[in-house]
Amino acid sequence: MLFTLRMLAMGVHFILAGIAGLLLGLCRPFNPDNSRLCARLYSLPALPILGISLKTDVAPLLAREQACVIVANHQSNYDLYVLGRVVPRRTVSIGKKSLKWLPFFGQLYWLAGNVLLDRGNAVRAKQAMLTTTETLQHRDTSIWVFPEGTRNGGGALLPFKKGAFQMAIAAGVPIIPVCVSSYAGRLRLNRRHAGEVLIRSLPALPTTGLSLDDLPALMAQCRQQMQHCIDQMDQQLQHARADARGEGR
């Protein structure tokens, strides 16, 4: 019963947040800070509706002094609500061009200033990549990327794709990894307290002086650090749950 009520409430919330986001985008189209504000519109009401307790430790992310490429693990559609709490100012993301035609969300995503890639057209994809480099270097705007390219379902990190790291090296900007504890498939949405999720950002990985020859090592370093952090957070939550069960006996 609680699960059904939550899904109904989330449906209403999604529509209302979409309308508010569209109005924001129409009032100041393509403003690079629209994405952060829209993310908050979706996230702040959604977390209590879903019964998710969120704890964040993202000082390196919020303290950034220059544009960067932010990479995060991608678990489920709920990432919109979980990660929406920590999107920093002047940050956009990269999505498929087809997103633009999704009712409500697609138009909001486009007006929020996010970068839309036509992956089926090599020329346009290359031009979009040049646009992201210019955005990072000259517009004081960071780019958020899910380097796995698809949802991992809460399991181990999938192999990383090169795009985010190529962008960072081309623009000479640092990479900031953002790690989310494994929650996909573990939330109990039929209970008042559905679960706890941890988010932690890691120290920036510099790319100054690197070339594409350094790409494999940079990707491996980033993926290893993120997986280690996720494993640590998962163990922390597991110990906390075990302690809570012990105190309840």
Automatic annotation (TrEMBL):
<dbReference type="Pfam" id="PF01553">
    <property type="entry name" value="Acyltransferase"/>
</dbReference>
<keyword id="KW-0012">Acyltransferase</keyword>
<dbReference type="GO" id="GO:0016746">
    <property type="term" value="F:acyltransferase activity"/>
</dbReference>
<feature type="domain" description="Phospholipid/glycerol acyltransferase">
    <location>
        <begin position="68"/>
        <end position="183"/>
    </location>
</feature>
<keyword id="KW-1208">Phospholipid metabolism</keyword>
<keyword id="KW-0594">Phospholipid biosynthesis</keyword>
<comment type="similarity">
    <text>Belongs to the 1-acyl-sn-glycerol-3-phosphate acyltransferase family.</text>
</comment>
<dbReference type="InterPro" id="IPR002123">
    <property type="entry name" value="Plipid/glycerol_acylTrfase"/>
</dbReference>
<comment type="pathway">
    <text>Phospholipid metabolism; CDP-diacylglycerol biosynthesis; CDP-diacylglycerol from sn-glycerol 3-phosphate: step 2/3.</text>
</comment>
<keyword id="KW-0444">Lipid biosynthesis</keyword>
<keyword id="KW-0443">Lipid metabolism</keyword>
<comment type="pathway">
    <text>Lipid metabolism.</text>
</comment>
<keyword id="KW-0808">Transferase</keyword>
<dbReference type="InterPro" id="IPR004552">
    <property type="entry name" value="AGP_acyltrans"/>
</dbReference>
<protein>
    <recommendedName>
        <fullName>1-acyl-sn-glycerol-3-phosphate acyltransferase</fullName>
        <ecNumber>2.3.1.51</ecNumber>
    </recommendedName>
</protein>
